[in-house]
Amino acid sequence: MADGPPTMGVEEEFLLVNPRTGHTSASAEQVLARYRHHGPLPDGVRVHRELRLTQIEAASGVCTTADGLRYQLTATRRVLAGAAAAEDCALLATGTPIGPGPAAPPPAGEGRYAEIDATYGAVVADYEACGCHVHVGVPDPDTAVAVVNHVGRWLPTLLALSANAPFDHGRDTGYHSWRMVQQSRFPGYGVAPHLRDHAAYRRAVETLVECGTLVDPDQTFWLARPSGRFPTVEFRVADTALTVDHALLQALLSRALVQRALADLGRGRAAEPLSPQVAAAAVWTAARHGVTGQLVDVAGEARRPAWALVEELLAHVREPLEASGDLAEVRALAAVLRADGTGSVQQRAVAGRGTPEAAVGWLTALTVPPAHGTRRTG
Question: Is the whole-model pTM more than 0.85?
């Protein structure tokens, strides 16, 4: 590895909705066609449609600093929100639709997305879930697999911190991440199995493709995995972030976990395999309760108060956060999240005291940062 902390990047998925009703709007192609009229995107940022035309995804460029990533996420959200507004849409950072859906979103039509529709049928027909994916640079594929083994125990805690999907097309599910419940319907979801090296990882994925449960090797549903496109570990556990600060917290914690794993590997410390059943229980509990109750400690195989596990996570990554200069930032972001609540807590509070239009307006305002939030320093 080069000197300094690993690189990082974030992929954010957003919903497009009618600003008056909250119904999702199949306007991705129109928004993509006009976003260039609403200001340049930062260098390296890419935007494209997702499985449903009611969704749009933005991928940051490769970043090395918190301020650089904050700038990219902020500027990109502003550009896409402006393009959406010009198409009479609101850009919402929510894991699942807050408003009622009048009908299932239109099918993909052709290509890989159509193949996904054909493979999974009704499981995916109304799937409009949005996530926040974090990429962290690693030196080689075998190291990526070893890092994935190390970070598995912390993925449910990251999910709980990210929880931002309490609704299912207008219905309060009682969960904090209904997106994760929807994702659990797909084969091979959850914490990745403990694997020896990248050759074993490839064999595991190819077996699932051969069994007909994955469309192709790029489609694994594991919550952290070696990227098939970049020299990174990809964290896919988080709901899409309500705010840029929530996304930044996920990115910095994910990078610190990779740094800690690399340090442990350098000391010859291999990760202990996790119980698949306990890991599944931990993911479900995080989706159900967020950080409002007790979570499952995967390594300890017992329930613990959510914020006790968050503090343990922060202690686990203290050294890499200090080394990268991000410790104060992460502690401040976590403190604000604890005081204000996760996206799911805030969404539920707002939706319970207003109209769908008011809730969409509130979500729109939280999605798009104010003008003073664009520090750019690398």
Answer: yes
